[in-house]
Amino acid sequence: MKIEVNGVSKTYKGTKALDHVSFTLPEPKIYGLLGRNGAGKTTFMEILSGHILATEGEILIDGENPFDNQRLTESICLITEGNNFKKDLKVKHVLNIYAYFYPTWDQELADELIKEYKLNLNAKIKALSKGMSSALGIIVGMASKAPITIFDEPYIGLDAAARKKFYDILLEEYEAEKRTIIFSTHLIDEVSLMFEEVLILQDGRLALQEETDTLRDHAYAVSGPTADVEQFVMGKEVIQSKQLAGMMTAYVYGNVQQAKSAGLTVEGLPIQELMIYLTEKKGA
Ligand SMILES: Nc1ncnc2c1ncn2[C@@H]1O[C@H](COP(=O)(O)OP(=O)(O)OP(=O)(O)O)[C@@H](O)[C@H]1O
């Protein structure tokens, strides 16, 4: 489904959470939505999910506004950090409700994930640990098979092994059947390798939208005698640098060809480091 964000602003009692944001997500991909605290990520995801209205502008999904539009909301699943489900319901009731709501629901996948996360179907939501509650969110998000599935920091309380399991399942399911996945996270180093495209919000504005491959092509480490490297990086965007025994390595964001033609040693840079740098820088 095509998502068009047209001049979207959202103001909460004087706080501008989103400020004239425009971009397009034309096709199913895994999108990373990054930004510092308060950058406007959750607000954007809530407008996209049809939960709230923009103050100005609109989001169109295949040309339609998702607000109060059941046909569209059946195609969108938003899983947030905790509080996804009514506290007095049992796990099995929650699953039944979502199975009924989403025409694309995959019960086989849900059953598989319930086993994987060892979820007790008869437990009440309020009795679940934070991690178990997050696991239920992940199961619902994955099994919904919603053409637009949005995860907003969905892993509170999940340990590293359970998060890894989630990333593996997500990638496996995505490979089997492409859908638009929007993933907002502060654990960039864990998930950035999954992203095909990255969007960075800064103070309610779009600071960057780029394909991961393009970012990868622009990030490199350059090494050589300190004086040569220092001269080369002058005026360039340096992410980080270190020196040892007269030699220097600098991580640079820019045109890699320039480094190659300068006769210095050039290597790729881990994409995680670049995304963390850009998020911090754009959010600074
Ligand atoms: N319901 C609300 N009422 C008032 N202000 C709000 C409300 N929701 C969000 N805001 C404000 O809007 C701004 C953007 O918040 P939002 O939750 O969208 O950011 P975020 O990028 O998701 O942040 P985080 O990474 O901390 O979750 C913040 O300044 C926040 O305080």
From TrEMBL:
Molecular function terms from GO: ATP binding; ATP hydrolysis activity
This protein's UniProt keywords: ATP-binding, Nucleotide-binding
Domain ABC transporter: 3-228
Pfam families the UniProt entry points to: ABC_tran
Gene3D superfamilies in alphabetical order: P-loop containing nucleotide triphosphate hydrolases (3.40.50.300)
InterPro entries for this protein: AAA+_ATPase, ABC_transporter-like_ATP-bd, ABC_transporter-like_CS, P-loop_NTPase
UniProt cross-references to SMART domains, sorted A to Z: AAA (SM00382)
SUPFAM superfamilies: P-loop containing nucleoside triphosphate hydrolases (SSF52540)
Protein name: ABC transporter ATP-binding protein
Organism: Lentibacillus kapialis
